[in-house]
Every structure is written in structure tokens, then in C-alpha cells.
Specification:
The model is unreliable at 38-75 and 358-370 (pLDDT under 50). The chain has helices spanning 3-41, 52-58, 68-76, 80-105, 112-139, 146-179, 184-187, 190-209, 232-270, 276-309, 316-338, 342-353. It is elongated and about 115 Å long. Helices cover 74% and strands 0% of the residues.
Length: 370
């Protein structure tokens, strides 16, 4: 008689422990599901073509009716990295639009030098718009088509390619303005410069159209690079081309330094004394070139090297952290190439307050002054 209550109490205890264990398992499962949802919401790489809504649709596993709220929450979850990139793109677009407005509405800024600066500003403006469009396609369209996705990626590729090529064109123009100082103004006419820039932009447009023409990894996601929809092979080609462009820029700037030092020595010999002002100007020029190359290298080389060694299986945070400095380069370009130019500064002062501050020189400017 005494054994029956004890057995009943043990059974009740066992049942209670079993219920607690089941409750703990359910809590752990819910925590795992929440963690997976957060990881999926923040794991899309730069220029990703698969927002959460598209990703869930392509996975081939429709959610149950009870999970519709969770799927909707995942679909509208915005990656903070994408917000930063969109804000950066907005600032880029406004800053470079100001440069283009100054160049367009100032009749005196019609030299080939300023045409090159305008090409750079236009490329960086389109890059900013590309970041905004890419954000809109990912988060504002409920079910974006493949054409919209590939067009957004193509705009980014075209814009950033044109930006890098415009930087190379400015470097070549600076070199020629010193190397062929006597014949520079007669050879580098406005028409010639415009024709060269047209060819550059057509080439960059062709590169940007490659994803739309089938050079993408929408059908075979295993071939994706860290920058979807660009395939691994295409990303390798673009990265190698960029490194070659950077090597050419370094070579040209070294030649510019040699020419500048040679000119300083010739001036010193002609005047039979050390031209202190000329030496100071030369040192400032070398410092400026160092800043230009250093900024360009820090912004772009890490992403280029990462594109060579990584693939789509790498964590997306690495891609974001390296793509953001590359976008910042388009924020810095107007400061280095446009706002430091005295003629553009003068136009800005006139546009803002209708006056010209003292200290502006009225002498003609060449590419080497920019």
C-alpha cells in the first residue's frame, strides 16, 4: 500500500521532467531559427542579386502558412551595410553633381583638363546613383526581374570602371603636359580629348553590359565571385586589369617626379642659385602625387586582391568592408581633382557669394596644376 503513492509521485516527477526537457528543446529550436534569420538577412554580398524575398523563392521550399509573418519580416530586414552604401552613394551623387554644375555653367572651364575632371565627376556621379539603384532594387521592389537586377549591377560596373579609367586619363594628361610642354596645347585639343573620352566610355559601357549579355552567375551560383552577379573568372579579369592600370599610374607619376626635379635643377642652374620657391613647389607637387596614389591604392587594391583570392563562399562581411573604401574613393576624388583647383574654387566662390577672394591667380592653368 505504501509503494503505490511513491510510484505515482515518481511517474509524475518523470512526466514533469520530460515536459521541461521538451520546453527547453523548443526554446533552443526557436533561438536557432531566429539566429538563422538574422544571418540570412545580413549575409548578402555587395551588389547581391538575391534579396530575402527572392532567395526564399529560389530555394524551392515554400514556407508554411504559419510562418508567413517570419518570412515577411525577413524580407523587409535591411542590412546595415547596404544602408551605409546607399548613404555613401547619395553623398557621392550630390558632391559630383556640384562639380559638374560648376564645369557646365562656367564658360572659362572649357579646357581639355576640365573635360577630364568632368568625365571623372560624371563617372563618380553614376557610381553614386548605381549604389542607390542597387539598394532600391534589393529592398523596394517586391519581386525584381533578372533584367532589373543585372541592369543595377551593370550600372555599378560601368560607373566604377569609367572612374578608374578617367583617373588614368588624368594621369596620362598630366604626364604629357610636362613631357611635351611645348606642343601640349596644340596637340591636346578639346576635340581630341572628347574623342578619347568617348572611346573610354564606350569601352566601360561594354564591360558593364557583360552581365546582361549572359556573363553572370544567376544560373550557376557556384561560379559567383564575391561581387555577384560577376562570375569568378570575370572578377579575376577585372582585378588584374585594375592592378595593371595602377602599375601604369605609378610608372607615370614616377616619370612626372623625375621631370619635375629636372626642371627644378635647370631653373636653379640658369639663375645661378638654388631656387627655393621652385624647390618648395616641387616638394608640394611630390607630396600631392603621393597623396593621390596612396589614396587610390588604399581604396581599391584590397578589394582587387580579395576578388582574386576569394569566392562567393567567403563571409559577406569581408566583401562589404572592402567595397566600402572603394566607394569612398569616389567621395575623395572631387576633393583631390576638382575642389583643389583654383579656377574651380573661384567659380564656387562666385556661385555661392558672388565674390572672389584674394589669392586667386589669373594665369592659365594646365593639367599639371590640377
Amino acid at each position: 500500500m505504501l509503494g503505490h503513492p511513491t510510484a505515482a509521485a515518481a511517474a509524475a516527477m518523470e512526466e514533469h521532467l520530460l515536459m521541461q526537457q521538451q520546453s527547453l528543446e523548443q526554446q533552443q529550436q526557436q533561438q536557432q531559427e531566429q539566429l538563422l534569420t538574422l544571418l540570412n538577412a545580413s549575409s548578402r554580398p555587395f551588389a547581391s542579386l538575391w534579396p530575402p524575398s527572392v532567395a526564399s523563392a529560389t530555394a524551392g521550399s515554400p514556407p508554411a502558412s504559419g510562418d508567413s509573418g517570419d518570412v515577411a519580416a525577413a524580407a523587409v530586414a535591411v542590412n546595415p551595410w547596404d544602408i551605409v552604401l546607399c548613404a555613401t552613394g547619395t553623398t557621392m551623387a550630390c558632391e559630383n553633381a556640384l562639380v559638374l554644375a560648376v564645369l557646365f555653367y562656367t564658360p572659362g572651364l572649357r579646357a581639355p583638363t576640365f573635360l577630364l575632371i568632368g568625365s571623372l565627376a560624371l563617372a563618380d556621379l553614376l557610381a553614386g546613383l548605381g549604389l542607390i539603384v542597387n539598394f532600391s532594387v534589393q529592398y523596394l521592389l517586391s519581386s525584381p526581374s533578372e533584367t532589373a537586377l543585372l541592369s543595377a549591377a551593370g550600372l555599378l560596373i560601368t560607373a566604377f570602371s569609367a572612374s578608374v579609367c578617367s583617373l588614368l586619363a588624368i594621369t596620362v594628361d598630366r604626364y604629357l603636359s610636362l613631357y611635351n610642354a611645348l606642343t601640349y596645347h596644340s596637340e591636346r585639343t578639346l576635340t581630341f580629348t572628347a574623342a578619347m573620352l568617348l572611346l573610354v566610355w564606350l569601352f566601360c559601357l561594354g564591360v558593364g553590359l557583360l552581365p546582361l549579355l549572359g556573363w553572370n552567375c544567376l544560373r550557376e551560383r557556384s561560379t559567383c565571385s564575391v561581387l555577384r552577379p560577376v562570375t569568378k573568372n570575370n572578377a579575376t579579369v577585372l582585378a588584374v586589369a585594375f592592378l595593371l592600370i595602377f602599375a601604369l599610374m605609378v610608372h607615370l607619376y614616377l616619370q612626372i617626379c623625375k621631370i619635375a626635379f629636372r626642371h627644378a635643377q635647370q631653373i636653379a642652374i640658369q639663375h645661378q642659385f638654388i631656387a627655393t620657391s621652385q624647390a618648395t613647389s616641387t616638394r608640394k607637387g611630390i607630396a600631392t602625387l603621393s597623396v593621390i596614389l596612396g589614396t587610390f591604392a588604399l581604396c581599391w587594391i584590397p578589394l582587387a586582391i580579395y576578388s582574386l583570392v576569394a569566392d562567393s563562399s567567403y563571409p559577406a562581411v569581408y566583401t562589404y568592408s572592402l567595397a566600402l573604401p572603394a566607394a569612398f574613393n569616389s567621395l575623395i576624388n572631387p576633393i583631390i581633382y576638382a575642389f583643389r583647383n583654383p579656377d574651380i574654387q573661384k567659380s564656387l566662390w562666385v556661385a555661392c557669394c558672388g565674390c572672389i577672394t584674394s589669392g586667386f591667380s589669373s594665369r592659365p592653368r594646365t593639367s599639371s596644376d590640377v
